[in-house]
Amino acid sequence: MKRARARALERCGEELKVLERDTSKIEHVRPPFPRISYTEAVERLRAKGNDVTWGADLGAPDEQGITEDYDLPVFVYNYPKAAKAFYMKENPEDPRTVLCDDLLAPEGYGEIIGGSQREDDLERLLARIREERLPEEAYSWYLDLRRFGTFPHSGFGLGVERTVAWITGRHHIRELIPFPRMMNRLFP
């Protein structure tokens, strides 16, 4: 992140100026980033008057409420199992949650990275698929990955357009997608 930030400021300073980006908002961004649990995030939101309930996924207004307290991106970790994908590994310290995290950008940009440890136990994975009432046959290939050998592993997804939106100060994702869908254009 440090190099990316420095490169953006160094290589694209003129472009950021044209975009009228207040670069002071990103000049000080350096890891490590703050980390709070989902439970702590819900407690903080409720203290601010938000009516979010524990167990619900966090929406854009919730993410904005969390990042209001920070001028750096913040990690929120260990979301409720019911709010996340079936393939996320159950948290051994709190079975209500899964081992996952989201990186939320400040200034109201929300989630820019989402990641989790993946479930590597075939029986637990199958139980989650059944619990979610997903069609087992559609996931047979995925189950075979566990059946024929696996190991503990994790994955993440970086929202490139969202990250660029935060760096450049653009507030509408449509400005960052090469071929956005619009009322008068669906292809490409």
Structural overview:
With 188 residues, the protein is α+β, with helices and mostly antiparallel strands. It has a domain at 33-118 and 153-175: Bira Bifunctional Protein, Domain 2 (BirA Bifunctional Protein, domain 2, 2-Layer Sandwich). It is 35% helix and 14% strand. The chain is built from eight helices and five strands, in the order H-H-H-E-H-H-E-E-E-H-H-E-H. The protein has helices at residues 2-11, 13-18, 24-27, 38-47, 60-67, 122-131, 140-147, 160-168; strands at residues 35-37, 74-77, 100-105, 110-117, 154-158. A five-stranded mixed sheet has the order 1-2-3-4-5. A hairpin with a 4-residue loop joins strand 3 and strand 4 (110-117). The longest helix is centred in the N-terminal third of the chain and has 10 residues, at 2-11. The protein is globular and about 55 Å long. The two termini are 32 Å apart. The model has no long low-confidence stretch (mean pLDDT 92).
Short note summarizing the structure:
With 188 residues, this protein is an alpha+beta fold. It has helices at 2-11, 13-18, 24-27, 38-47, 60-67, 122-131, 140-147, 160-168, and strands at 35-37, 74-77, 100-105, 110-117, 154-158. The protein has a domain at 33-118 and 153-175: BirA Bifunctional Protein, domain 2 (2-Layer Sandwich), CATH 3.30.930.10.
Head-to-tail CA distance between termini: 32 Å
Share of helix, binned: 25-40%
- Write the H/E string, N to C: HHHEHHEEEHHEH
Q: From the 3D coordinates, which CATH architecture of one domain would you assign? A: 2-Layer Sandwich
In DSSP terms, counting alpha (H) and pi (I) runs of 4 or more, how many helices? 8
Radius of gyration (CA) equals 19 Å
Strand content: 5-15%
The CATH topology assignment of one domain is BirA Bifunctional Protein, domain 2
